[in-house]
Amino acid sequence: MKSLKGVARSVCSTGMNRMHHIAALAVVLLLLTPPAEGIVRRHDRDDARYLEYGARFKAVARIGGPPPNPEGTGTLIAPQWVLTAGHVGDGISMRTPLPDVEFLDRRYEIEAIHVHPCFRGAHPAHDLALISLRQPVADVTPIAVYRDSAEVGRVATLVGSGFSGTGLTGPRREFWDHRKRAATNRIEGVEAFWISFTFDPPATATDLEGFPGAGDSGGPDLIEVDGTFYVAGVESGSGDSNHNGVTGDYGDRVRHTRVSSELRWIDATMAGRQVAVQCYDQLRGVKRVASIVLAAVGGLALGLWFWRSQLSGAPAGY
Length: 318
Prior knowledge:
The protein folds into 2 domains: 18-270, Thrombin, subunit H (Beta Barrel); 279-310. The protein has helices at residues 18-32, 47-54, 86-93, 263-270, 280-312, and strands at 39-41, 60-63, 72-78, 81-84, 101-103, 106-108, 110-115, 129-133, 155-160, 164-166, 170-172, 181-186, 189-190, 194-198, 210-212, 220-225, 228-234, 253-258. It is globular, with a radius of gyration of 23 Å. The strands form 4 sheets. It has a 7-stranded antiparallel sheet with strand order 6-5-2-3-4-8-7, sandwiched between helices. The chain has a 7-stranded antiparallel sheet with strand order 12-9-16-17-18-14-13. The chain is α+β, with helices and mostly antiparallel strands. The termini are far apart.
């Protein structure tokens, strides 16, 4: 196990300079990282239903101790392993001493923090961290990670204990009672490294529709398959995508980190192995080069076709 004096990181194929990453991360954390996430609910549903639903998920923990200043949320995916957001892992790694992780009002000491090597700050791709605990969590059944790729269209359960509110108000600090809530939302989009949701108004919403607010980053997006819940996403950020000046109200859309794309890193890290991973910005660069090459080849082919057509249609004796 690696020392607590640093964040344990896997080998990343980008070879990014560590000091450059830390400096850039500091700027991102201060200026760019969106608020951590809680649960905002439908305005026409009783809040007690969201609280009752949230209480079911004992494997969802508060990271950083009791209110008023928890660092985030995580999910127990194995007896001594907690999955959370990368920016939560980076944030708590800078604290001395390290904070505890709290399950059922019991605190567990952190052994080490492993932030995904491709984590880049304010972006949902690779916004993951694994926290190993000094001892197994008692009386809590872990929630396994989702290992299939059929997320789109499924109804996910979002769990958090941050700022609450409704779709009319968005998340509000005055509604922050530090209690765990759970809501549902349909996964409407899936990309290589993230899944996306929209906070639908009552006419098109799920029964307990909800949305991330502020105060609990790293919470899980759970999907149920054959009666069993799995962690399909990790709450990464929120925003004002409908540009009405309110973050987390009806119509807003959010992207969360997709867990099924990160299984290789998760499994290797929990097994104590380092693994080379390919980052989203690398793939994007490869796709950009490929598109340029294809455009050039297409242009050349078009030019050749035009040249041949000109020759074939030329007058005799030309």
